[in-house]
Design brief:
This protein is an alpha/beta fold. The protein is built from 4 helices and 8 strands, in the order E-H-E-E-E-H-E-E-H-E-H-E.
Length: 169
């Protein structure tokens, strides 16, 4: 069932959806790695594709930036079972280097999205243990080392010091 933010219909999305923030990265992934990718939504320039990877149906769709955006684009009535956030991120530690793969075991968020959406007041959200186990096994089979740990999600990308006055234009 389509929404104002997504023109896809039932059956258009696979059960597993990869979600990079950048819609152009979603387009690149679909066109580079999926077999027979088809565009299933492009509302507001947020591209979503479905195709196959090694014979398995996979979808890829941009999530935008921040919790409100991914909240809109991950809202689903399409039978999706797994959403895997992929793409770039910053780091608070020098242990994580450029191109390292991070597996989130928990996510702390400053956003009130979870409280507003579901009443969930936990400080740290945890992903599906079964999905993380499958990701670990896949990474191990491919020889990809993982950095595991909690991540921090925020609605603020460029944080200003609290005493700084914002510039409006």
């Amino acid at each position: 069932m389509s929404t104002p933010h997504n023109r896809a219909e039932n059956g258009d999305f696979a059960k597993t959806v990869l979600m990079p923030g950048d819609p152009l990265r979603a387009k690149f992934i679909a066109e580079t790695f999926l077999e027979d990718p088809r565009l299933v939504t492009d509302v507001r320039g947020m591209y979503g594709y479905t195709g196959t990877y090694q014979g398995r149906p996979i979808s890829v769709m941009g999530s935008g930036m921040g919790m409100p955006s991914i909240g809109i684009y991950s809202y689903t009535q399409y039978g999706v079972e797994n959403i895997i956030r992929i793409g770039s991120a910053g780091s608070y530690t020098d242990k994580a280097k450029l191109f390292d793969v991070v597996l989130a075991t928990g996510a702390y968020s400053e956003s009130n999205y979870a409280v507003t959406q579901s009443g969930d007041t936990d400080d740290i959200q945890t992903p599906s243990a079964a999905l993380n186990d499958a990701l670990r096994a896949s990474a191990k089979a491919a020889g990809i080392p993982l950095i595991e740990g909690n991540i921090h999600s925020s609605d603020v990308f460029y944080r200003q010091p609290s005493d700084a006055k914002p510039t409006y234009w």
